[in-house]
Design goal:
Layout: H1 3-10, E1 14-16, E2 19-21, H2 25-34, E3 37-40, E4 44-50, H3 54-59, E5 74-80, E6 86-95, E7 98-104, H4 108-116, E8 125-128, E9 133-139, H5 143-149, E10 161-164, E11 167-173, E12 176-182, H6 186-195, E13 199-200, H7 203-213, H8 249-257, E14 263-271, E15 281-283, E16 293-300, E17 305-313, H9 314-319, E18 322-324, E19 331-335
Parallel strand pairs: 3-13
Antiparallel strand pairs: 1-2, 3-9, 4-7, 4-8, 5-6, 6-7, 9-12, 10-11, 11-12, 14-17, 14-19, 15-16, 15-18, 16-17, 18-19
Length: 342
């Protein structure tokens, strides 16, 4: 346990590995539409890249244009296998002496090790900063007002950041942001945000916010399953098609230029007796016993229903007859995303 996790336990949170719960998923889901949630993001971790060659080093490995990332800005990015399959999805922003990479905590140790293998003679150091930096997700319809009440600057536009009093706010949408702060200062920041009207909420609430925003998170269950465009990374600004080579670039480029993509990521609802899990297979009559797609991320609504991001054959989504786990499993209903699919 750490000072931060000890504090959360004292605030009534239940911690199960990296999953945080405050016990009322139904109320948290409702609060997304009416207020602001404050979520300890223990399921995410930070890798920091420092040194004069940080931008060039990361640029040569990732799907987006790190070299052209302006100061005060962030970007979605991915690290891919040579076959173009996503090994990690992450949020990347500039720091004074390099960059930070926010990714799923369950893949971070392996990604840290793998990325370190590419340093060679570059003047770069990689470090796992998960223990020294705390992450608090802020989401909901009154996010801007909550930050103002807390005396924290809300960045003017999506994918921009602000920095004040050692607290970094990275805005990832009109109703979602991530606060990054030294771990020792996290309890005070959490109290400050609560005093401004935010409601403490668990990991599931953040998953729900991201599902509704159409922002996927690659975890150990879905590594190497998807080409970036299947996760709509081209639609949320996670791919540059003008930059030079990087691992998997040929496949990612070919997917763009050689005809319509057959699979895309959709937002879906599911009514199921047990919680669906990331990586679970989807089925459709047109494909018989063959998998037609997979779940990416799942969030419970607290009433026995779930919302999820799911990659599936476009034709199956259009037919609307898709089932979880087996051809006769629970039915999925396709919901709207906040952006249009091609």
């Amino acid at each position: 346990m750490t000072t931060w996790t000890d504090f959360l336990s004292g605030e009534g949170a239940t911690l199960d590995d990296n999953f945080v719960s405050f016990g009322d998923a139904t109320a948290e889901a409702a609060a997304l539409a009416t207020g602001t949630l404050a979520v300890p993001l223990l399921h995410l971790g930070l890798v920091q890249s420092t040194g004069p060659d940080s931008a060039a080093y990361l640029h040569n490995l990732f799907s987006n244009d790190v070299n052209k990332l302006p100061a005060g800005s962030a970007q979605w990015n991915s690290f891919n296998s040579p076959k173009g399959r996503m090994l990690a999805s992450f949020l990347l922003w500039r720091e004074e002496d390099g960059h930070s990479l926010l990714m799923s905590a369950d893949i971070l140790p392996a990604m840290h090790k793998k990325l370190s293998m590419y340093i060679l003679r570059s003047k770069v150091k990689l470090a796992d900063a998960s223990a020294t930096r705390a992450l608090i997700g802020l989401a909901g319809a009154k996010l801007g007002a909550c930050l103002e009440a807390a005396g924290l600057p809300f960045p003017a536009a999506d994918m921009q950041e602000s920095l004040a009093d050692g607290i970094r706010i990275v805005r990832i949408g009109a109703e979602a942001a991530i606060a990054v702060v030294d771990a020792d200062a996290a309890p005070d920041l959490f109290r400050r945000i609560r005093a401004a009207g935010a409601i403490p909420a668990g990991t599931n609430a953040w998953h729900l916010a991201m599902v509704r925003a159409g922002v996927p998170l690659v975890t150990s269950a879905t590594q190497e399953e998807f080409v970036a465009q299947m996760l709509n990374y081209d639609l949320i600004g996670g791919i540059s098609f003008q930059k030079g080579c990087y691992p998997g670039q040929e496949i990612v480029a070919r997917t763009k230029y050689l005809g319509k993509l057959k699979k895309r990521m959709y937002r879906v609802s599911i009514a199921a007796e047990s919680a669906p899990t990331a990586g679970a297979d989807l089925y459709s009559p047109a494909f018989g016993d063959q998998s037609a797609g997979k779940l990416v991320n799942v969030a419970a609504l607290g009433d026995g229903s779930f919302e999820a991001l799911a990659v599936m054959q476009n034709s199956c989504a259009e037919d609307g007859d898709v089932h979880l786990g087996a051809p006769d499993g629970p039915a999925l209903a396709v919901l709207d995303l906040p952006y249009a699919l091609p």
